[in-house]
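Pair request: fold both.
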Amino acid sequence: MAIKRIIDGVHVVPMGNANAYLIEAEDGLALIDAGFPDKEAAVFTAIRALGRTPDQLKHLILTHGHPDHIGSAAAIVRETGARTYLHEADIPLAETGGPFRPMAPAPGMLRRVLCRVLYDHNERLAPVAIDEPLVDGTTLPIAGGIDVIHVPGHCAGQVALLWRPGRMLFAADVFMNVMGLGDPLGFENLADGRASQARLAGLSFDAVGFGHGGVITRDATARLRKWARAR
């Protein structure tokens, strides 16, 4: 699948049943997440489709340390020299390449099956060094300002990111939007996950992207709040 524009300055890059997001700004390109392993070519193709070159990718911001979000990080950094960011709780996962923490399936038969099929906490990846830890409540001085929101539950070091100029929320795997808005495949801690869902539903934004599934660009805040209230 090709790169797709979401809003001005933001493009989604399919990374093998996972999404990465490319942000264009005057200070260079920023990439949110790195997808599954061996998907780095999708990023370089997307960059060139925008008339840019890989060396213009300055920042790689990882929402959490699961294999489907950091899998191609080492290869992307090797090609671009991008500065890397990840919450301190997950930095050891990225810098060793695994194994990863166990995760229990989210409620429901489908997620119980898919979590066991798709998530292997013993998977090993090429390790990637992290340059800067992401800290809850801070704003990265990247692309006009990106707010960092720590949202554990699915993964202890998971963060969501709110890009101020475009009022777009990158919700990582707090939710997924495959066949409708819902839980991720699993949780390391269900209670923390529910609290994180409520926290994001309390924010205000115009669009929301997920690690898995389609982006919401209309009534995004209202849709997340409605889903969260129904839990």
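--- second member of the pair ---
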Amino acid sequence: MIVLYDFPECPYAQKVRIVLAEKELEFETRLVDLRKNEQRSAEFLKLNPLGKVPVLVDEDAVIYDSTIINEYLNEEYPNPPLMPEDSYGRAKVRMNEDLADMLFTPRVELLQAELRRGEAERDGEKIRRLQNEILQLFRRLEHPLQSHRFVAGEFSLADAAFAPGILLLPKLGVEVDPSLVNVQRWIKELHERASVQAVQH
């Protein structure tokens, strides 16, 4: 049985749950409450010395880091494939996943944290800057999405990485420019995908 050490609001754990859903894999969830610093417990640090969720345990295999977990799942459970067969195609998926993990998701998290503050404490300039940086990233995706249904061709590990943040856009006050028709179509498709909808429940 696959066990996922998880915190429901963590976007990196969510991207693993999307891949598990795409593969239709059964798994058990073990809650690691980040609000109580359970990720720093001695027991959890034995699984991941970096003290971060998610961690996946599959029989004797213990894997941490969402990107490494998802590549493991794709190799160990190859159907449906979430990486292309060709090396350049896989590189494009990895580069887009890196955009999601290193540029998009951190800005979503910073914006979310700022908007959680009381109105008097919010930094309006910081909010506008983060919103604009997210929109700039979408402008970079518009051209590739012109010739692809998803960011690197078919639905892949890269789309799974973007999806958790995409779901939050309405709450973050981020409105995609209507001229970005391909980005808007892609966002709509992500919202409609069963694996993505599953992480909202």
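Observation on the second member. The mean pLDDT is 95.
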